[in-house]
Specification:
The protein is α+β, with helices and mostly antiparallel strands. About 20% of the residues are buried. Strands 1-2-3 form a 3-stranded antiparallel β-sheet.
Length: about 230
């Protein structure tokens, strides 16, 4: 039993290390932040994300027999199986530059969507960090369990610490997902509406600064005044 517990603890510690150093629990890298208005229109782009995963799949079993034909052991054969996944995503842009949601709504002037986005990112950061600390505490508990002489206490400590590591892992995963640039605090329609309103204002500003357009507005204004006086 002691050997089984120690082996399980080692596997969990190895999994924890692989998750941390492999980047599984870290948020995906997004576009640079701090972008300001450039004068280019805003838009929402639809795209398809494609990625692959590889896992071991059992493909057969082999029996090993002695000289008399008695089965003395079995072996299992595995092969890597690669699966292709796809998912529809959307992201905001300014001109041709992809934006972080925070910068997009700040430029568009949608304060409500900006606050919801900032709240989502802050929640993700909190859960990701909290999960990391929980996992680290669980690993420490496992290491301490190695040195506990009483078998029952050692088993309880190691198993409990393993559950703690598992809980921390999912907490960190949840936080990383909330921080992922592909996770949005608002619906796509909200971003699309914000872009449309911003572009309308951008077009009016350009019209006022352009000579012919400005003269056209002045002519309309004069015509409206003449009608009012008449």
């Amino acid at each position: 039993m002691s050997r089984t517990v120690s082996s399980s603890a080692s596997l969990v510690i190895m999994a924890f290390s692989a998750a941390i150093f492999g980047g599984c629990l870290l948020p995906a890298k997004g576009p640079k932040s701090g972008v300001v208005a450039s004068g280019h229109p805003l838009a929402v782009v639809d795209d398809v994300k494609v990625w692959t995963t590889t896992q071991k799949e059992q493909v057969g079993e082999t029996e090993y027999k002695d000289a008399q034909g008695n089965v003395i052991g079995t072996g299992t054969s595995y092969e890597d199986k690669t699966t292709v996944h796809s998912a529809k995503i959307w992201y905001p842009v300014q001109g041709t530059e992809q934006l972080a949601d925070e910068d997009f709504f700040k430029i568009a002037g949608d304060q409500k969507a900006l606050e919801e986005t900032l709240e989502l990112r802050a929640s993700g950061k909190k859960w990701n960090r909290r999960g990391m600390y929980t996992m680290a505490g669980g690993v420490v508990g496992m290491i301490v369990g190695y040195f506990v002489p009483q078998q029952t206490v050692r088993t309880v400590l190691v198993v409990g610490s393993g559950l703690t590591v598992g809980g921390g892992y999912y907490m960190s995963m949840w936080g990383a997902r909330q921080m992922n640039p592909e996770t949005h605090a608002v619906d796509r329609s909200v971003a699309d509406r914000a872009a449309t309103q911003y572009n309308q204002g951008l077009g009016q500003a350009r019209c006022r600064s352009a000579g012919p357009c400005a003269r056209l507005e002045l002519a309309r204004h004069v015509h409206a005044n003449r009608i009012a006086i008449a």
